[in-house]
Design brief:
By secondary structure, the protein is of the alpha/beta class. The protein contains 11 helices and 14 strands.
Length: 300
């Protein structure tokens, strides 16, 4: 295993950020840590990259203990924190040269690993990092995290605040990096990105809700789920929540995802109820559960 986490707990005064977390990541795996802001993702990343010490538990990264072998871990991992943390007054090229020097290497030595990413920012190599767009900052940060050819790559919400096109490009780059044998642990609040990982761990309030492949987690959804729409979204949500047989009601794009508490649910009966609430253009269609649906169910 490339990463092994056993019973990790961490508290900040009265806040329990992590509660007895345990899981492992296989060598060469693209593993996603999926959860909302405040779930504990960044705290766990800081522990695994030796920037924070856990209150309880143990962890190893690339075969090294996060406490006793912290120097070896720092040489073996690349870390891209959620907030852009490169030197904004240095140019693109100067940032890369700086991080290469820190790790005792050169840009030329590991250029093959970053080439596909670097060619996209090369036209801006003399521009200060602080003047780059969000997508270009992201690519530069990834180059700097890879410049020493790490065994494990930690990416803490790398696509937050980035446009959809850049998000798609970034995940395509991760898939190609994985082919080089690099183990990747990535955190994200975006449920649609979870489906791009080999395995995921759903985390909420410092607890792991479930760990499995994205497809397996979706299959665990316990009830039939329906797309419901009407002429007034706000009133629709309010009416569904008041319905005595509702099990769950969540907005989902242009629809509301609805599950019923009964085994013999009849959509026609629900439609009649919604019409009694002065709603019109009502549509109720069975749909397939998503990772977001599963997360919401587990987090209840």
């Amino acid at each position: 295993m490339s990463i092994i986490i056993k019973n990790i707990s961490k508290s900040y005064k009265k806040v329990n950020a992590l509660k007895n977390i345990s899981f492992d990541v296989k060598a060469g795996e693209l593993f996603g840590l999926i959860g909302p802001d405040g779930a504990g993702k960044t705290t766990l990343f800081r522990i695994l990259t030796t920037l924070l010490i856990a209150d309880e538990g143990a962890a190893t990264v690339a075969g090294f203990d996060v406490i006793t072998d912290y120097k070896s871990i720092r040489k073996s991992v690349g870390y891209m924190p959620g907030k852009f943390s490169l030197y904004q007054d240095l140019t693109v090229e100067e940032n890369l040269e700086f991080f290469a020097t820190i790790f005792g290497t050169t840009i030329a030595e590991n250029y093959d690993l970053i080439k596909e990413i670097y060619v996209q920012i090369a036209p801006f190599k003399n521009r200060r990092a602080g003047k780059l767009s969000g997508g270009m900052k992201q690519k530069l940060a990834l180059c700097c995290a890879l410049i020493h050819k790490p065994k494990v790559l930690f990416l803490d919400e790398p696509t937050t605040g980035v446009d959809p096109v850049s998000r798609k490009e970034f995940w395509e780059m991760l898939k190609r990096l994985q082919q080089n044998g690099i183990t990747i642990l990535v955190s994200t609040p975006y449920m649609d990105e979870a489906a791009l990982c080999d395995r995921i761990a759903l985390i909420q309030d410092g607890k792991i809700l479930e760990i499995d492949t994205p497809a397996a987690i979706v299959k665990h959804y316990p009830k039939p789920i329906y797309n419901v729409s009407a002429n007034n979204m706000y009133q629709l949500i309010h009416s569904l929540k008041e319905y005595e047989y509702n099990h769950s009601v969540y907005p989902f794009g242009e629809f509301v995802h609805y599950t019923d508490s009964r085994l013999d649910f009849n959509p026609t009966e629900l439609k009649v109820y919604l019409e009694s609430k002065n709603l019109s253009n009502i549509s109720i269609e069975k749909t397939v559960a998503t990772i977001e649906d599963t997360f919401m169910e587990l987090a209840k």
